[in-house]
Recover the amino acids of this structure.
């Protein structure tokens, strides 16, 4: 009996059944305090159908799905390697073309034109505003966090703090906070940009200089604490930040240079272009940085800090730099959000937010700029869709269940992300290979 | 400067007047932190990782205890033997739930990565994923609003210390935690199992050559730490109530306590927990209640910068 369960196909079937039971639960109806079992029973017993064909119950549908998934796994185990080899043969040609610089730049330009035309293609009020509030801002944040997590390999769980600083600086500069604005009179939101960038960079250095000496896991906890502290202060310093009610009077930005005057209003599309412009700006800055001496120093530190140090790289200096540079784009995102929304509440700057950004980076691929952009767009579009047209039984916080599951799944099956940076993938495989034959060392995670 | 001195003097007077009252509350909180901190320290010993999902182990204990109380406590508040029975059952349920959640986390979020010998960043991310998954799932199944536990006992003053009342609740925490700490100290220091845990913490390669089953030892470490975390969640919920994200702040403080005492050091975790609980409670005199969490983080950052090995020093694998 025991032998039967230990056979590989049977074990895979059991794992798939377990996973499907969980999937059934998280997609099922919610429970509540009064009916703590309702979610469980409902998830398995609720009526369902195969695409409206037969009427049956959820567990039947999911059992079928499990069996189909098992069939696919078994088929893949049998034929997978051959298929993969053939696919990689077939893709070898296009891949070589794709790696040529002019082709990549051309492709990027096509995407940019598409991004410029996008608000006119989706001629729908919800999606036009979603492009700003759900997509563009988050892409900006994700590429910034990618500098910290992807390039320098530092896990920052307090990234939201920089975003909050950017947003609050905007409110301050435009005179929307109880604190008097700089130089005594309210300025336009555009003036918030230099202030925000300076403040987030200072915050990045202040936070980074003492904490970046710490081990990776300690750093994660300390940054997490930092994010929480910023929220606590924003929530409680009534005289300075407006407290838990935040502020609702941030004016729209006005661009006024010489004869040109343009006022951003309530319509989302102009903000989309503002955000898109910043995204393009930061994409260019970050990809240039990645290829520069600084970028190579980050890679060296990430791969082997001791070796990098012995080559004359000052790890602390470059780590602090990664913090500050990554924070800059979050500051930008904060300015755009605050002026597009006209309001801000401290309750929107939570740990959850930092982790959501982390997920965008991880799905696409840490260290891969194109991957991060793609990952961010995918997740944010799905999130906007789910919030706009929620399926039966879906509540907004349910998204985080999926997010958590996605993080674990990615780490188990595809740690380098959907579109991995070649270098990062090589590093991970090399790391894992170098620890083969030393089960214990790997088991301890090694003090890297 | 004078007004600042005046401020301090005035607050020190309050501190003097309220000291024992705050001290009792601080000890009770500190013991809870210590119970959670022990879980961090144990796992850190064998895996060299912060178990980010430990807050959800705490939460599952809280909910398990809540459901036991809901089933057992009727319209009137129980007393005498019935109270004891209900609390014992609650502790058993919470410990089991905590251990089960910890095992689940270890199997799903850690073991596959260990098999693949993943770099450390991967473990952290996967653990954050597990934490996120668990607490939001709890939110979906049990609602997103906080509920208070039905009271299984009358929370009267049992005795007073220098005029400060010690409530039934404080006494329960004291008895339960002290029993568990003694049991744990014995388990890790004196049994074969504990020797296994210590040997893996010290040098996993050699331990495996000596015939220690590493997978099994790690699983047991998670179970022990999870059981303590679960019970702490139940005791915490008795007073504050339960909610899906109840684990976040206490777990962060417990981690601070573990670092404060010296990570990997079991007795250090207890000392750190007590110290943090007391200091935090005494700070209520000086800062507004809203900033208490800031104090805890401040202590964490300070310890990490000034003495990263903690008060009693890091100990991986040596007795207690």
């Amino acid at each position: 009996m025991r032998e039967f369960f230990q056979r590989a196909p049977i074990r895979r079937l059991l794992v798939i059944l377990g996973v499907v039971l969980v999937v059934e639960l998280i997609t099922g109806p919610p429970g509540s305090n009064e009916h703590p079992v309702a979610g469980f029973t409902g998830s398995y017993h609720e009526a369902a159908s195969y695409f409206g064909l037969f009427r049956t119950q959820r567990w039947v549908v999911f059992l079928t799905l499990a069996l189909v998934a098992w069939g696919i796994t078994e088929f893949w185990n049998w034929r997978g390697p051959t298929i993969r080899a053939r696919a990689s043969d077939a893709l070898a040609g296009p891949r070589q073309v794709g790696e040529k610089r002019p082709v990549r730049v051309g492709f990027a330009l096509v995407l940019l034109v598409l991004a410029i035309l996008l608000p006119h293609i989706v001629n729908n009020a919800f999606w036009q505003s979603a492009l700003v509030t759900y997509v563009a801002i988050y892409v900006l944040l994700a590429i910034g966090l990618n500098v910290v997590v992807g390039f320098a390999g530092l896990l920052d769980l307090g990234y939201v703090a920089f975003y909050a600083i950017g947003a609050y600086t905007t409110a301050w500069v435009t005179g929307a906070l109880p604190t008097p604005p700089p130089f005594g009179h309210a300025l336009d939101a555009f003036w918030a940009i230099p202030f925000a960038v300076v403040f987030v960079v200072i915050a990045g250095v202040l936070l980074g200089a003492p904490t970046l000496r710490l081990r990776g896991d300690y750093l994660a906890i300390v940054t997490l604490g930092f994010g929480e502290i910023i929220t606590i202060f924003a929530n409680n310093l009534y005289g300075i930040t407006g407290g838990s009610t935040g502020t609702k009077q941030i004016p729209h930005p006005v661009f006024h240079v010489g004869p040109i005057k343009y006022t951003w209003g309530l319509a989302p599309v102009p903000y989309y272009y503002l955000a898109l412009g910043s995204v393009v700006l930061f994409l260019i800055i970050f990809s240039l940085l990645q290829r520069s001496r600084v970028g190579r120093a980050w890679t060296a530190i990430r791969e082997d800090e001791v070796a990098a140090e012995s080559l004359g790289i000052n790890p602390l200096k470059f780590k602090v730099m990664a913090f500050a540079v990554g924070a800059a784009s979050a500051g930008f995102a904060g300015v755009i959000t605050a002026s597009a929304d006209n309001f801000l509440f401290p309750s929107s700057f939570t740990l959850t937010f930092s982790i959501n950004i982390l997920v965008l980076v991880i799905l696409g691929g840490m260290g891969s700029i194109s991957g991060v952009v793609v990952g961010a767009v995918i997740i944010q579009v799905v999130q906007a869709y789910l919030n706009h047209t929620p399926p039966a039984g879906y509540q907004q916080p349910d998204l985080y269940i999926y997010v958590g599951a996605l993080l674990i799944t990615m780490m188990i099956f595809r740690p380098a992300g959907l579109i991995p940076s070649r270098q990062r993938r090589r590093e991970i495989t090399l790391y894992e290979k170098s620890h083969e034959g030393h089960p214990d060392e790997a088991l301890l995670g090694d003090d890297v | 400067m004078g007004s600042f001195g005046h401020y301090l003097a005035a607050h020190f007077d309050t501190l003097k007047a309220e000291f024992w009252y705050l001290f009792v509350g601080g000890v009770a909180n500190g013991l809870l932190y210590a119970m959670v901190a022990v879980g961090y320290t144990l796992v850190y010993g064998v895996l060299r990782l912060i178990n980010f999902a430990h807050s959800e182990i705490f939460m599952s204990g809280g909910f398990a205890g809540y459901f036991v109380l809901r089933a057992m406590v009727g319209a009137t508040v129980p007393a005498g033997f019935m109270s004891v029975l209900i609390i014992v059952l609650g502790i058993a349920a919470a410990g089991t739930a905590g251990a089960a959640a910890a095992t689940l986390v270890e199997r799903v979020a850690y073991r596959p990565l260990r098999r693949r010998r993943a770099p450390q960043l991967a473990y952290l991310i996967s653990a954050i994923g597990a934490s996120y998954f668990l607490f939001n799932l709890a939110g979906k199944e049990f609602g997103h609003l906080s509920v208070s536990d039905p009271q299984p006992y009358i929370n009267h003053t049992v005795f007073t210390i220098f005029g400060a009342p010690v409530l039934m609740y404080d006494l329960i925490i004291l008895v339960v935690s002290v029993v568990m700490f003694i049991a744990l100290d014995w388990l890790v220091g004196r049994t074969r199992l504990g020797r296994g845990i210590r040997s893996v913490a010290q040098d996993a390669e050699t331990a495996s050559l000596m015939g220690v089953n590493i997978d099994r030892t790690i699983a047991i470490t998670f179970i022990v730490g999870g059981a303590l975390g679960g019970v702490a969640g139940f005791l915490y919920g008795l007073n504050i109530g339960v909610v899906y994200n109840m684990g976040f702040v206490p777990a962060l403080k417990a981690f601070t306590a573990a670092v404060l005492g010296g990570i990997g050091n079991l007795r250090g975790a207890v000392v750190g927990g007590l110290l943090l609980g007391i200091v935090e409670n005494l700070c209520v005199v000086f800062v507004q209640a809203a900033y208490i969490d800031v104090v805890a983080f401040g202590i964490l950052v300070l310890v990490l910068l000034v003495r990263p090995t903690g008060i009693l020093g890091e100990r991986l694998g040596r007795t207690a």
About this structure: Chain B touches chain A through 61 residues (CB under 8 Å). The domain at 18-306 of chain B is CATH 1.10.3470 (ABC transporter involved in vitamin B12 uptake, BtuC).
